[in-house]
Amino acid sequence: MSPSLRVVAATFIIVVAAYYYQINALERAEQSLKPVVPFTGVIAETRTRIARSPHPELYAPGERFGFMVYGANIPTNPASFYAFQYAFVPAMLSRDADADRVVVVTFPEEVANFEANNRVRLLDTFGAGVHVYQRERK
Amino acid sequence: MALLGLLITGVLGAALLRTILGTRGAGPGGGLLIATLGTGLGVAMLSALRFWCLLASCSSHVCQYLESGFLLLAVIAAMVVCWRGRNHSIPDSRPAVAGYQVGRVILALLVLIQLSMTLQWFQQAAQAIPYGMWDAWAFWNVRARVLMLSGDDWRRAFDGTILHPDYPLLLPLTVLRGWEWTGEMQDSVAFAISALFFGLTAFLLFALLHALRGTTAGLMAVAVFLATGVALEWGPSQYADIPLAFYYLASLGCMTLAIQRPEQSGRWLAVLGLSLSAAAWTKNEGLAWAAIGVISTSIFIMNRRLPRSGMIWFLGGLAPLAITLCVFKLAIAGQNDLVTEQSGSTAMEKLFDMDRHRLICQYLFNVLPTWIIWLTVCGLLLGVRRSVGTRMMALWSLTQLLAIILVYYMVYLLTPHDLNWHLRTSHDRLLVQIWPGFLFTLFNILRTPEEILTDTGKNATKETTSEKTQVAHAGSAG
Which of A81, A109, A122, B12 has the most crowded Cβ, counting Cβ within 10 A? Predict the structure, then answer.
């Protein structure tokens, strides 16, 4: 094969393959995107729920809430995402383990398991798996 | 303010790199190389500085003053070096540019289109996954958040509550620096860092090949990189794999420059040391990469393939980040789950479990992109360069790449976790780590279209003789 033909063939392969693969790869990547609910949406929903709650006193300012994430598959649960990023860390830092109330973010199917393993009383639920419990003291 | 932080990082890194390279600089086509490599190394060095500030209980403001002070010193040093080197230059040894204008224009247009599509993809990802993917919020960014909020009690970020307390700190501390410069914990900072490293990797790949082999080789390699599905998918993830890919690529590039520019080999070995330690400061896989790099570079120097004096430069470049990493690993980091959950007897069983070998091979071969076929065809069409320098570079680079693949293989083989899960969640990211380095090595070894068209067979022979002389000279100089 002549040098010119070899160069043209190599360039052709790179150009066509790069264009084709990038289009394909981007299509695949776009399809694989699983958008999470922005945390601002979850916070707004939390506030709305609190405002509409038949027991607004549950969320009185100054109440100490502990936060925890319970169960697996956290990434697929937007509410868990909120908890992990914006509640879990402050809770971990404040070591608010003695708080009277605890906000648990979990999957609905994990709730029974959580309640069986902890001495708690359900106060409220909202979002896609946010449960607010009262801790029962010994 | 975030832009100011980024500007400080880029300018400081570039100025420091220019100072290390001395009066000759990075040679023809080296401006982009200094900008991209310098920015990446600046990120690593300033994250290490932030770590020392944490240890010394300095506030973020003190750290920012220190950054500004170092920036001033580095810029002054770089200006002095540039002024002293105004009459020095490195001869341009790249292939002639004549005879392939149309091909180069087509390739340049392709890369521009690809860059625009990539930019659109990142904009889309910024809307859909502004917080990155699982590992980003499970430990990389959460650790940064704890460090930001915890004040003097920052060691709690490593008490085991957050996953992987042994992972190095380049990424969390860079996110932390971004938040400190912006004054609040904006999610866009972590995303911007992710996008920055993807862009830096693409531009460094081009810059290295542009400086060593000419524009065409650089354009071809970048075109392939931007069209690699796994790289695009993991680009906006906010994981440490793309930054690690950047430092792998930087290491391979620096070693090649150390070999191909004997008059500057010591200085490029210093930058190689810095790049290797930056990889180790990014992720645990980088630690293995750095260890392999230190061993293979030492062997090269002992065998007089590189000047003996290069060892001092190499260790000098390696030391700052290596010491930082040692202090972190010995004094702060938690235990590694792969080590603590391992037991001797089961490890032996796993070594000889053929099902595990089969499963690992299935995953690793499945992820090999179809690009490999097309690149093989291109390789056959373009042909391989034959020179002493090319052989040395190929030997070092392929040793690095094959050794790190072997390390990954062994980690999978001995993993205490469920092998299927471990492979499923990480095997394609490992390809992303080594892919830019592989592309650099390949296009550095292959002849360029210009070389083929101008039929530089005779020139290549002359070049080989010249390189032989240079290498022999370098060896005797040591």
Answer: B12
* Residue B9 in this model has a pLDDT that exceeds 70: yes
The segment with the largest mean pLDDT, out of A121-125, B129-133, B162-166, B274-278, is: B274-278
Contact between residue A81 and residue A125 where contact means Cβ atoms under 8 Å apart:
no
Res. B247 pLDDT band, cuts 50 70 90: very high
CA–CA dist B444, B382 (Å, integer):
12
- Residue A137's contacts (CB-CB under 8 Å, 6 or more residues apart) are none
What residues of chain B lie within 8 A of the CB of A18, using their CB?
A: 110, 114, 223-224, 226-227
Encode pLDDT of B165-210 as tens digits. 899 999 999 999 999 988 887 878 999 999 999 999 999 999 999 9
CA-to-CA distance for B25 and B151, rounded, in angstroms?
42
Identify from B152, B233, B377 which residue to disrupt to test chain A contact, counting A C-beta atoms within 10 A and taking the largest count. Answer: B233
- Please say whether the beta carbons of A66 and A99 come within 8 A: yes
The model's pLDDT over A40-91, given as tens digits with 9 standing for 90+, comes to 444 455 555 555 665 656 666 555 565 565 554 444 444 444 455 555 555 4
Provide φ and ψ at B4, rounded to 5°: -65, -45
pLDDT, position B380: 93
Instruction: Answer yes or no: are the C-beta atoms of B293 and B306 closer than 8 Å.
Output: no
Tokens standing for residue B8: 């400080």
Instruction: Report the distance separating Cα B310 and Cα B24, nearest Å.
Output: 17
Mark which residues 105-144 of B lie under 8 Å from A by CB: 106-107, 110, 113-114, 117-118, 121, 124-125, 127-131, 133-134, 137-138, 141-142
Per-position DSSP letters for B261-327, written without gaps between them: -GGGHHHHHHHHHHHHHHHHTT-HHHHHHHHHHHHHHHHHHHTTSS-TTHHHHHHHHHHHHHHHHHH
Contact yes or no for B138 and A84 at CB 8 A: yes
Instruction: Give the pLDDT score at A59.
Output: 61
> Which residues of chain A make contact with B114, given a CB cutoff of 8 A?
18-19, 22
pLDDT of residue B85: 77
Coil vs helix vs strand at A69:
strand
pLDDT at res. A50: 54
Say whether residue B394 is in contact with chain A using an 8 A CB cutoff.
Answer: no
Q: Which residue in chain B has the smallest CA separation from A5?
A: B381
Chain B positions touching A75 (Cβ under 8 A) are 133-134, 137-138
- How open is the CA angle B115-B118-B121, to the nearest 5 degrees? 155
Per-residue pLDDT tens over the stretch B446-472: 999 988 887 654 444 444 444 444 444
* Closest-approach residue (CA) in chain A for B152: A93
Q: Dump strand ranges (E) for B57-193.
A: none
Closest-CA residue of B relative to A77 is: B134
The structure's pTM equals 0.84
Rounded Cα distance between A129 and B64, Å, is 41
Cβ within 8 Å, pair A26-B106: no
Residue that wins the pLDDT comparison between B135 and B115: B115
Nearest CA of chain B to the CA of A62: how many Å?
20
Q: What is the ipTM of this complex?
A: 0.81
Alpha-carbon distance of A86 to A121, in angstroms, equals 24
pLDDT, tens digit (0-9, with 9 covering 90-100), for B389-398: 888 889 999 9
Nearest to B128 among A35, A88, A92 (CB): A35
> What's the rounded Cα separation, in Å, for the pair B165 and B243?
19
